[in-house]
Design a protein that fits this description.
Elements lengths: L5 E4 L5 H12 E2 L4 H9 L3 E8 L2 E12 L3 H4 L5 H7 L4 E10 L8 H15 L4 E7 L8 H6 L3 E6 L4 H7 L2 E2 L11 E7 L1
Parallel strand pairs: 5-6
Antiparallel strand pairs: 1-3, 2-8, 3-4, 4-5, 6-9, 7-9
C-alpha cells in the first residue's frame, strides 16, 4: 500500500501548503510557519508528506521525546496512560495526520501512519502513541491507527480545551476557543 504513494520528508518549500491543508481540514491556528520551520530541523519532529504532482495531499507530523516529558506536552494524560508508557525511555508520537478532503478514502492516512510507525521504530522508541478525535460518537482515525498496531487506551473529554484557549486554535467543529472535542489515546509497543 505504501508503494502506491510518494511519501517523503517535508522541506521548507512545503510549509505554506501544509498550513493551508491544516487550516482547511483541522482548523485555523493549529500549525504556523514558525512551528513547522522549527520542526524541520529540531531533531525531535519528523514531518512526512504525500504529494501528487505539485500538490501535497496529506501530511503527518511526528515527534520523539523522552517518556518523562509526556506530561509537559500533554497535561491531561491520565495516570494509567503514563504508567503504561513508563516501560519506555523514548516514545514516538504520531501527533497530526491530515489528508485533504479531496484525497480521502484512498489509503493515504494508512500509508502515512505505517511509514511513521516504521520510521519511529527504526529510531528505537519503546512505543508509539497517537491521539484521535471523536466526532459524532465515532473515531474516524480508528481503523488506520488500529491497523498499524496501536490500540485504544482511554478517552479524554475536552482534550485541547486549555491549549486552544492559550493558543487561540479555532476548531472546525467547536469554532472559537475553547475546543470541547474528546480525544482517544492510542498506544502500541514496538
Amino acid at each position: 500500500m505504501i508503494d502506491r504513494f510518494k511519501i517523503r520528508r517535508t522541506t521548507f518549500s512545503d510549509i505554506s501548503k501544509i498550513i493551508e491543508l491544516s487550516t482547511e481540514n483541522i482548523g485555523d491556528g493549529y500549525l504556523n510557519a514558525k512551528t513547522l520551520e522549527d520542526a524541520i530541523d529540531d531533531g525531535i519532529h519528523h514531518i512526512y508528506v504525500i504529494e501528487s504532482g505539485k500538490t501535497i495531499d496529506a501530511f503527518c507530523l511526528n515527534m520523539i521525546i523522552p517518556v518523562a516529558e509526556l506530561p509537559e506536552y500533554f497535561e491531561l494524560l491520565p495516570f494509567m496512560f503514563l504508567e503504561l508508557t513508563m516501560a519506555c525511555t523514548m516514545i514516538g508520537i504520531i501527533k497530526t495526520i491530515v489528508v485533504d478532503k479531496k484525497a480521502q478514502k484512498k489509503g493515504m492516512g494508512a500509508a502515512l501512519v505505517a511509514e511513521s510507525v516504521k520510521q519511529l521504530t527504526s529510531m528505537q522508541v519503546g512505543g508509539v502513541m497517537s491521539i484521535a478525535w471523536v466526532h459524532d460518537g465515532k473515531i474516524p482515525a480508528d481503523r488506520v491507527l488500529s491497523s498499524a498496531g496501536l490500540r485504544q487506551i482511554t478517552t479524554v473529554n475536552d482534550f485541547w480545551r486549555q491549549d486552544s484557549e492559550t493558543h487561540g486554535y479555532v476548531c472546525l467543529r467547536c469554532g472559537d476557543p475553547p475546543c470541547e472535542c474528546a480525544a482517544v489515546l492510542y498506544f502500541g509497543e514496538v
